[in-house]
Design brief:
The chain is α+β, with helices and mostly antiparallel strands. It contains three helices and six strands. Helices cover 38% and strands 34% of the residues. A hairpin with a 3-residue loop joins strand 1 and strand 2. The longest helix is centred in the last third of the chain and has 27 residues.
């Protein structure tokens, strides 16, 4: 099974415009960027991500970590975490990413997995922003 090929074929059949990147398969849904990561060492590892939804700074890091923890505890199968990414000028930026991670069986039904993954990723992003707004309004 080649999960990467299955995923790119599924996305194309469903009308998305997937394209391969060095990290995996990128596509947009409802104006939001997604990235399906390749794992060359584990062909059953399914990781679909919503990259860089919020910038982390020294000023907001404590709040961001608490909010991420709250969301991670409240929504199953998804997790939020931070990643450091370098831009084209070698400047590092820390951002929050949302991930949907499962171990797929050897014959995954992506029509069952992907829509649910997208829904859960969107729910986690909405919960993250809602909790941030709740804290800001206190």
């Amino acid at each position: 099974m080649d999960l990467n090929k299955l995923m790119i074929n599924y996305l194309a059949e469903e009308g998305f415009r997937p394209h391969e990147t060095p990290f995996g398969i990128a596509f947009k849904n409802e104006g939001v960027n997604y990235l399906f990561f390749k794992d060359e060492d584990d062909d059953q590892y399914f990781r679909l991500m919503m990259p860089a939804i919020f910038q982390v700074t020294e000023d907001n890091e404590d709040v961001i970590m608490r909010v991420m923890n709250d969301v991670n505890n409240s929504i199953k199968v998804v997790k939020l975490y931070t990643m450091d990414i370098e831009d084209e000028n070698q400047k590092s930026e820390t951002t929050v990413w949302v991930a949907f991670e499962i171990l797929a069986d050897t014959t995954p039904e992506l029509s069952d997995i992907v829509p649910r993954a997208l829904t859960l990723l969107q729910a986690a992003r909405m919960a993250f922003f809602s909790k941030l707004e709740e804290i800001a309004n206190k």
